[in-house]
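ok trying again, last paste got cut off:
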Amino acid sequence: MNCWLPLRRLVSDILLTNDRGIEYQVVMQTNRKSMSNKTRMAYDRWSEKYDAERNPQILMEHDEVVRLVDARPGESILDAACGTGKYTIEFHNAGAAVMGVDFSDGMLAVAARKHPALSFRYADLSLPLPFEAASFDKVNCAQALKHIADLRAVFRDVARVLRPGGAFIFSVTHPDMCWDDYEIDSRADVDLRAEADMHDHRFCDYFEALERNGFDLDRLVQIPVSDKIKHLLTPESFWKVQGRYQVLAIRAKRHKQDLGPTPLPCN
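nice, full thing came through this time. structure:
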């Protein structure tokens, strides 16, 4: 038997101050845990070499993510888990007002050094985002959800900071990706599978988290191994794995009506 408790029974409130010196309230769930120091340390160590290393996930997804976000002048965009600001600067150059957040101090330091005109701040996606409700037109989250166990909690908070009708775009490793015979030509400086917490979410996990938090699926893109990363794989490996779906990118729209807080299941 499932029972449901009102959200307010499981939360405590904290006060934060925004850039204008105005205090605002953020609902914090007392049972949510931050991402581990293990994961943070992996990204801190990777930060100085991140942009120089050849990342097949980013190479494959880049064009599709940019199209799905479709940044426009005057829009307010949150680049969640922004890393060194690769997407942040592109959304800015398209005319949008962008805020980049990340939980890695190393990544944020590189981002701020490379893009001093942009805004970056610390935020752990597994905890409540430090922004007022309905602050953004779009939220982008690239290749970060694999480090978070509780998708529902993250999607709930994304829905909170999005304006009604706003878009949530996220990219992840394809849930059906088979890594057999997948061989990178040179070893990466950081092996996330070994050095960070990883969670293998299924299709149904993403869809359920979207549905339960007031999102409608707008677009789904499955991105296969292609010539874009041929130079990163050994010749034999590329011949064997080309055509396999490696990345999944999704754009979902927040319901235009205010659905109110989503109840939490009582376990």
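cool. The longest strand covers residues 162-173. Residues 37-50 form the longest helix (14 residues).
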